[in-house]
């Protein structure tokens, strides 16, 4: 009998080998999987934003801290301004009041009816209308609005709504800490820290990351501003999230950016 090297196992091995080669070729031809793209902070913020009116919106930026954004009309049409709504137990505190009474009305209603923490007090960081415009609504509802004496005096002289309660240059205010670092964007500008979250609300004293200049300088003290910024850094060294008066929050690079803009202005 002629010997043969064939055995019943050989076709099975050949089939398995072919199957393996086919799978390997398919795997090689398939494009590599890319990890799912995480949403950018800006995209996440947009998704979480709540629209209260066509010109008023809010979004949560830390536990117990909400950013409110209001949009101007009239001479300042299209310009948005930031402020905070900060939870304080079963109530909340409003920091800056929007451009006009209707903005404050929407914010107060949302805090009461949706957040279930009605505003018990407010403070304004300087005398300009993007900070003080909503004061008449708070006055009408018996909610005290606090500011430095200089802010009240300047608001009255400007014909803007006037806060009736007073703040010192450095004090705690519920869960917040307020500080007057010195003149900058305006002679009276306060900054506000929420120590529990590391959020520093710089208002118009701090510029956003996209700012190409220092903004409205009608009431600014550009010469004093750098030293004021240094005092702010020293007073609140633990700030991690910075909220400017306009546009998007960022990190401590916003302080560096503001300082760089001041140096550029001084060199011109």
TrEMBL record:
Catalytic activity field: a beta-lactam + H2O = a substituted beta-amino acid
EC number(s)?
Answer: 3.5.2.6
Q: Name one Pfam family in it.
A: Lactamase_B
Q: Which cofactor does it need?
A: Zn(2+)
Domain Metallo-beta-lactamase as annotated: residue spans: 80-246
Per the record, where are the segments of Low complexity compositional bias? 28-45
Reading the lineage from the top rank, the first entry is: Bacteria
- Signal peptide positions are 1-29
- PROSITE patterns given for it? BETA_LACTAMASE_B_2
Location in the cell: Periplasm
The ranges of region (Disordered) come to 28-48
UniProt keywords, alphabetically: Antibiotic resistance, Hydrolase, Metal-binding, Periplasm, Signal, Zinc
Q: Which GO terms describe its molecular function?
A: beta-lactamase activity
What is said about its interaction partners and assembly?
Answer: Monomer.
Report the family membership: Belongs to the metallo-beta-lactamase superfamily. Class-B beta-lactamase family.
The identity of this protein, by name, is beta-lactamase
Please report the organism this UniProt entry assigns to the protein. Answer: Corallococcus macrosporus
Organism ancestry: Bacteria, Pseudomonadati, Myxococcota, Myxococcia, Myxococcales
């Amino acid at each position: 009998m002629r010997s043969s090297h064939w055995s019943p196992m050989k076709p099975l091995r050949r089939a398995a080998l072919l199957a393996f080669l086919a799978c390997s070729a398919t795997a090689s031809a398939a494009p590599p999987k890319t990890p799912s793209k995480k949403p950018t902070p800006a995209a996440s913020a947009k998704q979480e934003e709540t629209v209260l009116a066509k010109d008023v919106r809010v979004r949560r930026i830390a536990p117990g801290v909400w950013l409110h954004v209001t949009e101007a009309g009239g001479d300042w049409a299209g310009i948005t301004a930031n402020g905070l709504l900060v939870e304080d137990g079963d109530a909340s505190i409003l920091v800056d009041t929007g451009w006009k009474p209707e903005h404050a009305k929407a914010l107060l209603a949302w805090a009461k009816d949706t957040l279930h923490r009605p505003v018990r007090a407010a403070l304004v960081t300087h005398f300009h209308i993007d900070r003080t415009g909503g004061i008449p609504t708070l006055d009408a509802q018996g909610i005290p609005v606090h500011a430095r004496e200089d802010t009240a005096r300047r608001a009255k002289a400007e014909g803007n709504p006037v806060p009736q309660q007073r703040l010192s240059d450095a004090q705690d205010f519920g869960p917040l800490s307020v500080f007057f670092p010195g003149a900058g964007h305006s002679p009276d500008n306060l900054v506000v820290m929420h120590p529990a979250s590391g959020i520093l609300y710089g208002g118009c004293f701090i510029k956003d990351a996209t700012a190409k200049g220092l903004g409205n300088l009608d009431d600014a003290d550009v010469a004093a501003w750098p030293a004021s910024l240094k005092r702010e850094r020293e007073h609140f060294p633990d700030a991690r999230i910075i909220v400017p008066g306009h546009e998007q929050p960022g990190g401590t690079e916003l302080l560096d950016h503001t300082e760089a803009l001041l140096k550029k202005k001084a060199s011109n």
